[in-house]
Structures are given as structure tokens and as C-alpha cells.
Amino acid sequence: MATHFEIDEFLLELLRSRSPTGSEREAADVVEKHVLPYADSVRRDVLGNRIASLGDGKKTLMLAGHMDEIGFIVSYIDDNGFIFFETLGGHDNVMLSGRRVTIMTRNGYVYGVTGKKAVHLMDAKERKEVPETHGVWIDIGAASRAEAESMVEIGDAVVYDTMVHKLSNTCCAARAFDDRAGCYCVFEVLRKLSKLKERPEYRVVSVATTQEEIGTRGAWTSAFSVNPDVAIAVDVDHATDFPGCDKHRFGSIKLGGGPVISRGPNINPKVFERLVECAKMEGISYQVGAESRPTGTDARIIQTTRGGVATGLVGIPLRYMHTPAEVADLNDIDNCVRLLQSFALSLKNTDDFTF
Ligand SMILES: [Zn+2]
């Protein structure tokens, strides 16, 4: 338990890495650095996924945590050197302006800020409006198009430039807990399992998936190639314990309340029950979330891969998802790792997840 409030070095490096959708190399390098010494193999594929395997069981458990994050892509540079962009993933446009950003160029980072008209210069109507994506630009201090183009190219990826901050208790603020937290969990459990005398009966394959934020595209290909019998997607889930949240609509999920075990048509009911049994057996506090449709997670595509995969979804409670200041509780992340470990060890070759 992270009561003394230290952030594990692996998690910290993942949170600091810049990994916008389609440009996940930094997070992938962190995964390789921390997982290679523990896994039997780590391979890459042509979508940029990192796929680590442990054991040689007849059956396979796939654990998926996506390593991409929302960001931007440079789409146009104007005559004065101001840079315009498209969004990568789902943004709240209220957040767009007044931010420091890092542009990831072939020659390294270029720093900028997102600008728009100052409040003093707006009329009453403009003050109430949410900016259009194309009404905000990136200012890198360049004096001309040519100067900007000497540093930045069309298609370069951009992320918000924010730090990891410890808050009170075991809470922490970072730019991309979605889903570096889940990505950490699926590899931390593999590292822990590798040190045990008693290995799981199933082969465990942990995948850092790419391009989740634009349609679970890394999970799509990796689930096909891994061909698992059982899979757990690990992602963040909305904590609903913030002021004014309508619990009648969004249910009750607390930060610090433990991992969220999802239930609904996207989830194999026997996998759900097994996860709950494991949580109870280990004394891990957990929460249950209802998902009425295919979820916006890797579980969505993994479940319907090939002839179908018995799929579960475990969520780490998160406040302020898809903002530059997401807040998670480190104890929830630790408890998620414990739950995944217990689940992996519970699997027997005789298990039947058909229903
Ligand atoms: Zn997301």
C-alpha cells in the first residue's frame, strides 16, 4: 500500500513520458526498460504495441493497458508562424487555451503555449463561448512561417506540458493517468508474477496497446495475434465523487474506494464473478460499475476478437479525465495490481468461461 506516498519509479517514468496517440514511442521505451528483465519475451508489432509474455501455459491470459494519451497534431502553420492543430482523442475545448505544450519534432521537443484572444478584448457573447479547436493556436515564439517551419512540421504530435504532482493523502495529479495507470498495472503484475515460485497455469501476456483513444486500434491487432482465452482490459474509470455529480445518472464511484470491476454486456459474467471472488479472498476493497453498452475501452474490441474472448474490465477511479490535471489515488493502483495478480493465479486449465 502506498501509505508513505512514494510513486513507484516505473509508474513515475510512465507518467512523465509523452505518448500521444500514434506517437507512443516514449511510453513504449519505458515499458521495455522496466519489463525486459522480468518477461520471457517482449515484442513489438507494426502498430507500435509492446507485447510481453510470461510462462508457457497451454492457455493464455491477456492483460491490456493502453499507453497512448490524448494530444494534438499540427495541421497548419500561418504566415506569421502561428501553429494550428487537430485534436487526437476526445478533448474538452474549455481546456485548450492558456496551456504550455510540447511539440514532438524529429529534432526533439519544441515548447509553445496555446493562445486565444484575452478576456479583456472579448465582447459579452464571446466570453460565454467555448472555443472552437481552430480558434486556438500554438505560439512557439516564431516570427514567420519560415521560422516556424524550420522547427515544426505538419503532422508533428503535441501534448500538454504538465508535471506529476503529489497531492494530499495518497492522491496524485498527472497529465495522463488515462491510461498510464492501467498500462503500469498490467506490467507491474507481470513483474510480480515473474518473481513467484508458483507461476500461473496460464501464460500471461501483458500488452501496452496503442491508439486506444481513437478507437482501440492497438488492442484490435494485438488481441488477434495474442489469441487469448481470457483477457482483462485495465483502464481508468470516472470517479463520481466530485461536487455536483449526478449519481442517479453516473452511479457512485469513489476515489480511493478500490478498483472498479465492470459488469454488463461487454463483460464475460464468469470473469466478473471471478474478479469479485479474488477481491474478496484478498480483502481488496472494490467497486462495481454498470456498463450498458460496449465500453470505450480496449475491452470493447478484445471481447469480439476471432471467436470471442472471455473479457473483463477493471477500472482505476479517476477525476477530471482527459484534462491536463487528472487525479488518481495511488492505493487504487496498488490494489488493482493485487487484484490482477490474484486473478492470474486463480486461473486453471479446466476453467470454462462459456455460459
Ligand atoms: Zn481516455
Looking at CATH, the homologous superfamily of the largest domain is Zn peptidases
The CATH architecture name of the largest domain reads: 3-Layer(aba) Sandwich
Through-space gap between termini: 36 Å
For the largest beta-sheet, the strand count, sense and barrel status come to: 8 strands, mixed
Average pLDDT metric: 96
Overall tally of domains: 2
Pick out the low-confidence regions: none
Bound compounds, please? zinc ion
> Would you report the number of β strands?
17
Amount of beta strand: 25-35%
> How many helices in DSSP terms?
10
The class by helix and strand makeup works out as: alpha+beta
Radius of gyration: 21 Å
The CATH class name of the largest domain reads Alpha Beta
Shape: globular
Enter the CATH topology name of the largest domain: Aminopeptidase
Q: Order the strands across the largest sheet as they lie in space.
A: 1-2-12-3-13-16-14-15
* Helical content band: 25-40%
Q: What is the H-and-E element order?
A: HHEEEEEEEHEHEEEHEHEHEHEHEEH
